[in-house]
Amino acid sequence: MTKATEVTGDLSPGVIPRSPIAKTRLFFKLHWHRGAPGQATPDWVLNFCYGMWLAAFAFKLVGSSWDMSWHFMWLRDDLAPPHLINTVGTVIIMVLVAIHSYTGMGADRRSLRLMQVGLVVFLIAAPLDVINHRVNGLDLTAWSPSHMMLYIGTGIMQAGVIIGWLKYAKPGRTRTGVLIGLWAFFLENTFFPNGQQEYGILGLRAWERGAPEAEPELLNFAANQIGHPVDRVAVEHFTMPIADWVYPLWGIGVMALIFALARYTTGFRWAGTTVAAAYLAYRLVMWPLLLGMGFPISTVPFYLLAVGLAVDLAFRIGRGHPLLTAGTGALLVTAFGYGMLWVQSQFRPWILGDAHTESAPPVAYWTAAVCLVGVGALWAAAGPGTRAVDSLLAKRRVTAS
């Protein structure tokens, strides 16, 4: 029995060490041998592996959040602490992808390919971003091509991790909880470019009231890029270079589709609301930390909670009818999302009066019509694709039984 246990790694809970280092040693002792994707994976190995994925994404989350704030204050970013924190997460991911690839454990062919492709895209984008900075100077927008490649690479990796966990984890609270966490990270990575407007509007207002957050070197650099003195035009070009229609469409329309995917894959009736709440809780923790360290702060997208709630209510109203769910979802998401975003934008005049600040970025409200049509069409079009998810879940239930 002992010999068989050493080969399979099917250990009793009392034998599994608690220390991550000890677990890592045990894993390499028992399982470090080559295998095709889809190898049988003991529960403790699966849970430990995906727990490390969550830890890796957490490092990248903290690093990227601080990095966004950093670039609204400092021009220099070589070996900046936010980059180093992000690199820790990237190194953990590289190790995890290598383990999945070599042993074939904890991932099938599809999820493994997504992890690998996402990592390759990210690793290509990182030096391209550095080269871009060296040749063209600091990239002053979160929406640039090299930055978008970083988000896309991370998103592809996260999709692979979600698919892998969805396929191999046993139904239960742990499975649902990890899925909620993974979707929260996926949401943050996708939402991240909207931070340009959330930090930017406060940066612009700070300059207007005579207390600029950015160092003079950064302001001079931004002004020189467009051949201007350091005036409001130059500062606005640096802080708010994105059109007002982008923020609501991305923050409401695209995030609603992510909430819908989270609700569908988890089966948890309040998944959208929970994912939104988890992300907002993180933003509310980072806000005072950045403020306390003297770094620029942003507006917080509280309206996301209304968008997540709208998605959950749509699933309850639709009750398994895809077109009804999609149509109801589009109506509720548009009404709740734009309504709450408008209310949030009024916090400044209602609560702070004439204070020279803002509680939300500028919004082009005519985009509500685009959001209504777009979310409805894309949500309905996603219906056929859910059959693959249904098939995956059905196979998982058969395997578990």
TrEMBL record:
Signal peptide: none annotated. The chain crosses the membrane at residues 44-63, 83-99, 111-128, 148-166, 245-265, 285-311, 323-343, 363-382. It comes from the Bacteria. Keywords: Membrane, Transmembrane, Transmembrane helix. This is Uncharacterized protein.
